[in-house]
């Protein structure tokens, strides 16, 4: 494996590990963001006659546990990526895409500052998803060369 691929994998893992540590360090700040984003998503889904599995009240009861679970999944996915296990990329891609849809969706916000902030966060998550997809592709190409 080349230096470039190892360095890219290292950067992806570093971003995810630092994000997980910040979630564990200050879960209250992330709880507020989770509750606000989910309640906006719930209201938006209700406008289209869709139902989400949890109501915002149910989510607020277990939001701290969700933050801890999310940070644990970020750490687990990062651990798997270090050892080139493809399920790690799948875990992180599913987490980041759900963040983009439920929390960082700019269409759910009305103030310009909020829209740009959430669009920025969403684009960052999409960039991480693209990098994770490249790590999946690199693993597949390596296995094809061996066989």
Automatic annotation (TrEMBL):
It comes from Stentor coeruleus. Keywords: Membrane, Transmembrane, Transmembrane helix. This is Uncharacterized protein. The chain crosses the membrane at residues 7-24, 66-83, 90-109, 115-135.
